[in-house]
Description:
This protein is of the alpha+beta class.
Amino acid sequence: MNLEINSLDTAPxxxxxxxxxxxxxxxxxxxxxxASLSELVAESGLMKPTCRRILLALMEAGxxxxxxxxxxxxxxxxxxxxxxxxxxxxxxxxxxxDCVGRLAQKTGDAxxxxxxxxSVVVCLARxxxxxxxxxxxxxxGDRHPLGVGAGPLAILAALEDPEVAAMMAANARLxxxxxxxxxxxxxxxxxxxxxxxxxxxxxxxxxxxxxGMGMAIRTPSGRIEACLSLAAVENRMQxxxxxxxxxxxxxxxxxxxxxxxxxxxxxxxIPPGAVRRRKPEGEEP
Length: 285
């Protein structure tokens, strides 16, 4: 889990908000097992008293809860409520979750829906296939910088060159400290390769033996905000199987994009009986 604690320190009180968000993201990275106070202190870099105060404030708001037996902390019910409300606006999961499940079923491997949030990519959903040997390097809630992993690489490669450069600059320190196995020239080479192929391929660069494939999803306005991806052990993503995996991935990406267009058209369609404003004479159309 990689966090920029001070990324919000631009206004009075913003530091506290940034720290609280960092704690929430750490808990989001371990939704099933939660985290102890000592683990949160180690991962966040916060002082123990500060971390405890943040947890108490988040618990009071219902954003965090603590198991009375294990004393471990978990995301709270109020976050679920807020998430359900936000999903009405950022509802790509409603349009893509069945696609993730179908990919897992067809391939037998792990399938993911990932969304872009600024210079990072967040995993929203994971579905496992039936193949008994699985890659466990990505779970719902995990965050990676653009370019790191098959999904983030697919999204980065779909951006225009100036934005690619801006995202690389924004993540430069994080890449250098947390991902030394990926240099800037190497990521840019992978971007070029992804553009030429039409999908990304991560050949075990982050974790030896764990391969990934990703394809970006384009919104009706042309923005790249999400992707579908696959992860498998190395022998499941070799050249003899690669074309079929890419075809299945492309099929589901097209379906999500069709649904996004239909949803956009539904939202922008003028209701029956609505009257268009008549333009005054001489007004530009």
